[in-house]
Amino acid sequence: MRQPHYALVVNPVVCDGSGVCAELLPEYVRLDPWGYPIFQAGEIAPHLVEHARRAVRSCPRLALTLVKLDTSVARQ
Amino acid sequence: MNPSAILLGAASNGKALWYLTRATGIVALVLLTGTVVIGVVASVGWTTERWPRFLSQTVHRNLSLFCLGFVAVHVVSTVSDGYVPIGLTDAFVPFLSPYRPLWVGLGALAFDLLLAVMITSALRHRIGFSAWRFVHWLAYLCWPIAMFHSLGSGSDTSLTLVLVIDALCTAAVLFAVIWRALSGRTFALGRRVAAVVGAGIISLAMVVFAAFGPLRPGWSHRAGSSTAVRAQVADKSAAPTTSSALLGSSAPVPAAGVVPPTLFTFSERAGANQ
Amino acid sequence: MTATSLRISSGSGDPQRSTRTPPVGAERLLLGLPQSGEPVGLIQHLDQWGTLPLWRKSSFIDELDGSGLRGHGGGWFPVGVKWRSVRRAALRRPVVVANGAEGEPASAKDRLLVRQLPHLVLDGAVLAASSVGATEVIVYVPSSSVAGMKRAAEERLRRGLDPCGIDVVAAPDRFLAGQESAVVNTINGQPSARPSFVTLRTVRERGVNGRPTLVQNVESLAHVSLIARFGADWFRRVGTERSPGTALLTVTGRWPEPRIVEVPLGVRLGDILGLGPDATRSIAGVLLGGYGGGWVATDEAMAQPLTEEAARDVGSSIGAGVVALLPHDVCPLLEVSRVARYLEGEGAGQCGPCVNGLGVLADALELLATQPGRLRNGISAIPKLCGLVEGRGACRHPDGVARFVRTALRVFENHTSLHLQRGPCHSTAPPFLPLPPARRRSTR
Q1: Among candidates C376, C139, C112, C411, which has minimal Cα distance to C288?
Q2: Distance between CA B210 and CA B189 in Å, rounded?
């Protein structure tokens, strides 16, 4: 059974640049000069998915969603 | 008197529950204050290298859980304490208690608000941000209600230690509200000014109320318990307490009308602290 | 009634095609357009084109697939695929929106269609409704065109022409008014044309009143109404395999006044515009697509066939059909900075990276045009800013600005070097690219 791949998606309308996601998942999230998140391309490393879930729960504006990637997309 | 003797005396007199109610009530108030202050720290996004934002979030949540725990014990001990006629429903439905209905009722109200805030926070992702935020603002209402509850129905209001705690808590929350108002750029200036002014007025009201209410003699008579309840409570303090009767202690059965020299009588508890 | 009628045979075997002669050549939508600017009324329209043939729902979507028609609103997305996805999403009854908002200042083709050829558009919209199972058509046009569109709808109502209702809604006067989710949000009652973040659920699933919504550009619907009459094979007689048919272009800078022309896709732009190899002497660069499109070097633009594929190969797009030929006496960097400032103000103001990034980008471009000596970090700051805003908004507005700016720096590289080495060129030519007059920003 292949493990699903995940990525983070942020709703830019709702995001207010609090930066909690970057604190909780620095390996995958960095902040632009104005405090808004930039995600690395591709999927989240499997051992970090739990941390990504925590980041989604902790976002003060509920701006994050964890999406399951189609494996063919993830390989690109 | 050594502590174990006090405790034994309290247990044999059925006062343990009352001590527990008082203590957990004050601790819960302090924890609620801490929750509100850390909540503001989280919401204004104050952060240092050693104190990230997620830490404010976590501490805020943990303090609120501790607070809920202490409130739960506070409720259970009050309800179990047969000395005052407060039932379990009075902990949730405000203003129906025969004993100091207004002040106990405020406690129930504060408890309801606390539960609402905490349950909606647990279900945040399901109910959506706007609904969650609307209920969460009620926390600013919950705190002063809890404070007035403490001032009005608490037995220790005039103790110096408690006065100091109350003053520090009030100052902390006032500070937090001002900080929050100053940082809330997204809100209109009018709203923020109103928030600070409102907080100031409420704090002043607390001080004035305390000064003319619980800190003046005879508060237990003015605290709104019906005459029947006051008489009932007075009778209880005149008769031997339940637990001592159960224990079959050698405490003397007093003659009718004579108040026995127990550690505290209920009406005297309040009276002694005026 | 035309004297001769041709029976068109088609693969679908649908017998109810138009008995009119199908147009030959590139003049299709604009065939018979009165030069006076008068709208074509219903009687005149039916006289010229005949009544709209009846199609079975699913068979017309197949015909659209066969025609290869792509959307003319800017996205160039295959129309048949779009209609099919709305039809499939329809657990609730869908809604069709004819999008004539045309927020692009340099484009005027949609305004022409809406004002002068409303029935071509409405035919297409009504056919879309019956194909996807909608009973409601909403026509979304600038407020100045509402009255005329309402009259056209009333004409049809009086004749009992359509099985569905036609409502007309005014579009706000904003650049993003025509953006798909902004269209839906405006119709749903929100002011000031704000897009939504639709990655997780598109308007095709949940749009107007929460129902699946087909938002289609008015030019696309006009082409649809002719495909319905003359078939997919006829449509493909002009154009290329992947970019078939004709397109309306708004051309600025070729003639004294901007002009709308209907051109066959796949023909070289130089041939369309009647410009030879010496075009480079008078034209500094060509803007293709609009203010979210891309600049192309003049010789490249003139030589390549006008198809969406060729345009994308050079980093641009046919987009909204804007073709602007920049003369040499205008400073291109000044033009780019003017437009960038305009685009900054036209953002919805919802997304941090876009709000901040477009502002800094416009500042940098302004410095490059007027005070290049003060541009810190040299020229590299600008592509970096483009990279910071691309893909980070709820809509493609920042991506469009980034493309507009990146391609400008590439096409006007020499001019940029001159600015950096010698200072601003102090061109005194009047502004070239059209922008609406500055107006007071309403608070968001």
Answers
A1: C411
A2: 32
Tally of structural domains, chain B: 1
Q: Best mutation site among C392, C396, C399 for testing chain A: the one with the most A CBs within 10 Å?
A: C392
| Of A23, A24, A62, Cβ closest to residue B124 | A62
Residue B72 lies in a domain: yes
Q: Which chains does B contact via 3+ CB–CB distances below 8 A?
A: A
Q: Which residues contact B232 (CB under 8 A, 6 or more apart)?
A: B85
Summarize pLDDT for B86-100 with one digit per residue, the tens: 788 888 888 887 777
Residue that is written with structure tokens 């289609």 in the block: C216
Give, for all 444 residues of chain C, the pLDDT tens digit.
333 333 344 444 444 566 788 898 889 999 989 889 899 999 999 999 999 998 887 789 999 999 999 999 999 999 999 999 999 886 889 999 999 999 999 999 999 999 999 999 999 999 999 999 999 999 999 999 999 999 999 999 999 999 999 999 999 999 999 999 999 999 999 877 899 998 777 888 888 998 999 999 999 999 999 999 999 999 999 999 999 999 999 999 999 999 999 999 999 999 999 998 888 889 999 999 999 999 999 999 999 999 999 999 999 999 999 999 999 999 999 999 999 999 999 999 999 999 999 999 999 999 999 998 888 777 899 999 999 999 999 999 999 999 999 999 999 999 999 999 888 988 888 999 999 987 644 433
The first and second tokens of residue C307, run together, are 């198809």
Please write the tens of the pLDDT for every residue from B158-194.
788 888 999 999 999 999 999 998 887 677 888 888 8
Distance CA C141, CA C101 (A): 5
**Token output for B94:** 């405000």
Neighbours of B161 (CB within 10 A): 9
**Which residues are C98's β-sheet partners?**
C139, C216
Chain B's closest residue to A58, CA to CA, is B54
Name the pTM for this structure.
Answer: 0.85
User: What's the one-letter identity of residue B160?
Assistant: T
Contacts of A14 in chain B (CB under 8 A): 129
Residues 14-53 of A with CB under 8 A from B: 14, 18-20, 23-24
Is residue B230 situated within a structural domain?
no
Task: Give the β-pairing of A5-10 and C246-252.
Answer: unpaired
Residue B263 lies inside a defined structural domain of this protein: no
Residue C64 CA to residue C85 CA, distance in Å, equals 13
Can you tell me whether residue C137 is helix, strand or coil? Answer: strand
Q: Shortest CA distance to C377 belongs to which of C408, C409, C332, C420?
A: C420
Which domain, by its residues, includes A13?
Answer: 5-74
A31-58: b or e for each residue (b if 16 or more CB lie within 10 Å)? ebeebbbbbeeebbeeebbebbbebbeb
CA pair distance C6, C8, nearest whole angstrom: 6
A38: domain CATH number is 3.30.70.20
| Contact of C244 with C236, CB cutoff 8 Å | yes
CA distance B29 to B92: 17
Which structural domains are found in chain C, ordered by start? Answer: 42-235 (3.40.50.11540), 246-327 (3.10.20.600), 332-422 (1.20.1440.230)
Q: Give the residue from A8, A30, A32, A39 with the most C CB atoms within 10 Å of its CB, the best one to mutate.
A: A32
- Judge: A58–B45 Cβ closer than 8 Å, yes or no: no
Nearest to C329 by CA among C411, C418, C216, C425: C425
Distance linking the first and last C-alpha atoms of chain A: 20
Is the residue at B130 inside a domain?
Answer: yes
Model pLDDT for residues C49-95, shown as the tens digit of each residue: 999 998 887 789 999 999 999 999 999 999 999 999 999 886 889 99
Q: Please, how many CA atoms are within 13 Å of residue B249, restricted to the half-sphere of its CB?
A: 16
Token representation of residue C207: 């749009």
Provide the 10 A C-beta neighbour count for residue B241: 21
- Domains in chain A, number: 1
